[in-house]
Amino acid sequence: MTPDPHHIVIVGGGAGGLELATKLGDKFGKRNKAAITLIDIAPTHLWKPLLHEVAAGTLDSNVDELNYLSHARTHHFRFRLGTVDGLNRKRRELYMAAILDEQANEIVPRRTLRYDTLIFAVGSITNDFGIPGVREHCLFLDTREQADRFHRKLLNRYFNISCRQDSSGGSQMNIAIAGAGATGVELAAELRRALKIMGTHGLERPPADDEIKFTLIEAADRVLPALPPKISNNVAEVLDRIGVQVLVNECIAQADAGGFRMESGRYVPAEVKVWAAGIKAPEFLNRLDGLETNRINQLVVRPTLQTTRDDAIFAFGDCASCPREGTNETVPPRAQAAHQQASILVTSMRRRLAGQPLPEYIYKDYGSLVNLSRFGTVGSLMGNLMGRQAGTIMIEGWLARMAYLMLYKMHLWALHGPGWVVLSTLGNWLTRSGKPQLKLH
Known about the structure:
Number of strands: 27
CATH superfamily of the largest domain: FAD/NAD(P)-binding domain
Distance between the termini: 57 Å
Helix content: 25-40%
Radius of gyration: 23 Å
Shape: globular
CATH architecture of the largest domain: 3-Layer(bba) Sandwich
Structural class: alpha/beta
Strand content: 15-25%
């Protein structure tokens, strides 16, 4: 009797998890050298860095999403819809919660999956730091559903003020974004562009610029505090030029229906409040049969990406706390790290199946890019990407815009291959003049 193939279960279908499942399916699943199963809470995938465009309406999520079941069939792995609610490491069993409909009727019963290798790639969610009122009054951009909800609220507010006969002398649409990291900065710029486009669509009375106020709030002393100061300065100049007010050195103490209150006593009124001020891993990771986690719920892993208490369980991407070689720091929660780790895990799985030692992951920083919609793109490329041993090259304008677009193309390349990317890019270029600039529903 032929033994069952080695079963690799991947939890989380974000950029890293889906890339890994695709590569493992093509390499091992196709030849029946291993069985690959991907688990995710949603039936479709959308690249997370695009969520701010979905929220603004400049990207239609229904067009750019990927169906897991269809992709799994093409790339020789299985997809299971659901969430994880338990783990038995001794029995190597993973437990999935029942799936219920809107009326709480059970659609799919609770299930048990046996695994030989288990890999967590569940990414991160927004960290509200326990600040009063944030969960109740703020919008988040962790999922496509949240981005769609944001877009509907934005449209409703815009239509409401466009139907008024006069501006009554003040701001009628106040948008405040907590956190001036990449998400907050890119969202502010994309929203400014979207609302400018919206004003050209023949509404009863398009709101004037002074009726829409943007405020970006940051606890650090500059926007994009994790990036080089030159990038921060360039971005701050662009934000000022397009009418986004930036408040730095301001810590939020409370959120309510009307806006944000600062620890300094300052109050920022806002009907639309967005929280983009930090990340943490999902809470359920703290309850996985004794696996070690840190203060933000990340699974603690070794350089091999194996968890500290179980060699058969791996974690990578934002949900993993991985040591960074030669420092006392951990690998930053960035898309490039997840992409690199997904690639090395393909090698790790090949060696694991062959009973060989596993490689250790070494983080390579290729730089940072920040896209300010059509208002500009700035960033830095590290010397090792440009064929040098050290140093940082600052880029902006057209070159930076092309580099930013290539990040998404690299993700698509990993999922679909070069031929699909070339044809898709050509098709989008040929049909872009017939597509609406903005999603207005």
